[in-house]
Structures are given as C-alpha cells and as structure tokens.
Amino acid sequence: MRYRIKKRLVPVRADEVVPEGEPLVEIMSKEEYWKEYHTKYQDHLLMKSMERAQYCRADLLKGCVIGTLVIPVKKELLGRPVVFGYYMDQSRLILIDDSGEAEKILHEMERIQYFDKTCVSHMFFEFLEYQVKDEIEFLQKYEEKLAAMEDRIMSGKRDRSDVPGAILRARKELAKISSFYGQLLNVSQTLTENYNGLLKDEDCVLFHLFSGRMARLTEHGKELREYALQIREMYQVHIDMKQNHVLSFLTMVTVIFMPLTLIAGWYGMNFKNMPELNWQYGYQVCVTISVIIILIEIWYFNKNGWLKR
C-alpha cells in the first residue's frame, strides 16, 4: 500500500506512477521489500536487523535512516511484540510489516489528523508519537493497580490471588515498558544528532521534543518499578509479622502449660512417700492449683498487652 503526503495521506492506486522525489509512504512485507530492494548495503543490513529484532533502533547511513521498532502490546506486555522495519530517505518512508498493524496505524493516524503532514520525516515523527499517545493514561492506570494491590496487603484481607506472582509480573511488565521508552529515547536522540544531514533543522527540533517526552516517560516507568519493589518488600514484612504473631502465640501457649507439665512430671514419679497421692483431696487441689496458675499467667500476659498483638 502506498500513500502520497499532501498535508494528509492520500492513497495511491496500484497502477499509478508517482513522480520521482514526491513524498511517499509505503507499506511492504519483508518479501516484497527484498524482492524490490536488495542491491544496496542498507537493504541487506535492514533485513538482517529484522531477522533478530529485539529492540528499537535507528542507524544513520549515507542518505537514509534504517532501523526496527519493537512495540509491546499493552493488553499482553509479556507476550509477542509487534515488529516493524523502516527505511527513510528524503522522499520515501517504507514501513516493513508482515502483521498488518502498520496499515491500521496509518488509517488511525489519518482519522485523528493532529497536524498537517508535509514530509516523510514529519510523518515518521507522527508515527513514533502515535506509539506513545496514551502512555500517560496507561501509566496512571498501572499506578492505580499497584496502589490497589498495596491497599489489599495493608488491609490484611485474605486474597486467593498469588500476590508474590502478581508483584513479579508487574515488575517484569514495567521493566519491559521502561525498556521500550528508553529504546525510543535512543532512536529519537540518534535522529536529533542527524550526523548524515538527512533531516532539516525543524525536523531535528521535533525529534528533540520527542526525546524529552520519552525521557519523562522512562523516568515515570522507573518510578513505578521502584514502587512495585517497595510493595514486594512491604508484602514480605507483612508475612514476617504474621509469622511472628504465630510464633508469639505458640510461645505463650508453651509458657502457660509449662508449670502444668512440671506438676504432671513431678507427681508422675510415683515415689512411695508422696502423701498427696493417697490424700482424699489431692486430685481436687492439683486441679485448682493448675487453674489458678493458668489464670494468673493469662492475666499477666493480658496486662502487658501480649495477647492483643
């Protein structure tokens, strides 16, 4: 699919000839790109980059920019990302995509139409902007999700969900999205440097602004990841406190019954000259003393607040 850039994207028919030098955006599959462009060094380098694409990158070459975009899917951040390759010179922007997502994005960009599109570099800037257009809202919702998790932990409510697993997943997702922001930051900084002279000064300003935005998003992502780490530590403290309460309770039970164990062991020796064994009220006195000891210990523990912890 091909589009002219005339303040907006204008579809080009398959049989239509586009004059040389007219700004053009084209979507191609890897097979189509390799079939039409395979004679230059940058074409081989781009295909090689796409075969093992794991991160966003931009390479400034003589007269062009090539690279890859590896975009995580918000609904499943730990799943398979969307991968694009791109080639840009002064008059062409070629998006290499086998998934069909690039065409959907261009249609959506044309629908919302923030600014007039004047050149391929401006178009590529808007394409990058589109990838992060809802990131502030996304990060705010993720922060609310972490806050809700923190509230559940602090309230002490029983939750069947795997809290450690949820925290671990959150940290992995935030690490991935923060890495994505950092990669886009590197791409925009590389384009801002413009050491091959491909971009105009006003285009460099746009990518410089994009760099600032990505730096803020990267910092926000790191803060949320630290927040998730704090929640994990708080959860561990909460678990330790519960274990300490259990151990304290078991210790108090042991202390309460220790005198009774002593009495049972003492009179269990059955020596012949133990008058209490043959005394008519020996059993009643032993029970009464045991009850009094237990009550005194419970009163003492309660007075010191140990039973309320």
UniProtKB/TrEMBL annotation:
<feature type="transmembrane region" description="Helical">
    <location>
        <begin position="246"/>
        <end position="269"/>
    </location>
</feature>
<dbReference type="GO" id="GO:0005886">
    <property type="term" value="C:plasma membrane"/>
</dbReference>
<dbReference type="GO" id="GO:0015087">
    <property type="term" value="F:cobalt ion transmembrane transporter activity"/>
</dbReference>
<keyword id="KW-0813">Transport</keyword>
<protein>
    <submittedName>
        <fullName>Magnesium transporter</fullName>
    </submittedName>
</protein>
<dbReference type="InterPro" id="IPR045863">
    <property type="entry name" value="CorA_TM1_TM2"/>
</dbReference>
<dbReference type="InterPro" id="IPR045861">
    <property type="entry name" value="CorA_cytoplasmic_dom"/>
</dbReference>
<keyword id="KW-1003">Cell membrane</keyword>
<keyword id="KW-0812">Transmembrane</keyword>
<comment type="function">
    <text>Mediates influx of magnesium ions. Alternates between open and closed states. Activated by low cytoplasmic Mg(2+) levels. Inactive when cytoplasmic Mg(2+) levels are high.</text>
</comment>
<keyword id="KW-0472">Membrane</keyword>
<keyword id="KW-0460">Magnesium</keyword>
<feature type="transmembrane region" description="Helical">
    <location>
        <begin position="281"/>
        <end position="301"/>
    </location>
</feature>
<feature type="coiled-coil region">
    <location>
        <begin position="132"/>
        <end position="159"/>
    </location>
</feature>
<dbReference type="GO" id="GO:0050897">
    <property type="term" value="F:cobalt ion binding"/>
</dbReference>
<dbReference type="InterPro" id="IPR002523">
    <property type="entry name" value="MgTranspt_CorA/ZnTranspt_ZntB"/>
</dbReference>
<dbReference type="Pfam" id="PF01544">
    <property type="entry name" value="CorA"/>
</dbReference>
<keyword id="KW-0406">Ion transport</keyword>
<dbReference type="GO" id="GO:0015095">
    <property type="term" value="F:magnesium ion transmembrane transporter activity"/>
</dbReference>
<keyword id="KW-1133">Transmembrane helix</keyword>
<dbReference type="GO" id="GO:0000287">
    <property type="term" value="F:magnesium ion binding"/>
</dbReference>
<keyword id="KW-0175">Coiled coil</keyword>
<comment type="similarity">
    <text>Belongs to the CorA metal ion transporter (MIT) (TC 1.A.35) family.</text>
</comment>
